[in-house]
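User: Can you predict the 3D structure for this chain?
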Amino acid sequence: MKELIIDQNPEVEVKFETYPEEVADKLRNLQNLIIETARECSNIDKMQEALKWGEPSYLVKHVSTIRIDWMAKAPDKYAMYFKCRSKLVPTFKEIYKDLLNYEKNRAILFGIDEKVSAK
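Assistant: Here is the predicted structure, written as structure tokens:
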């Protein structure tokens, strides 16, 4: 696997510490999936971690920002958010059909009890 330079932001870790432990573990899993996927992309060599709208966010030049967060208004859910005008959610819908839960063209929703993995 190639090296990926990640410009980490300590505020993201502080944000993870505000979540209930089970939620933080789930979001760290999504964080790891995002990073692993970026490592597999030959055109990505640098990623910036930031807080956008108070949510852990992952930015790559010329690629849509991905945000992750717990849904406090629906505490049994957490999500991975995308720009609603990107083609990412429609692509996920085409590939995975009803295997994933979507919020229009802006997010993939996960239940706290769901196991989420790259395989």
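Strands lie at 5-7, 46-52, 55-60, 63-70, 77-81, 101-103, 107-111. DSSP finds three helices and seven strands in the chain.
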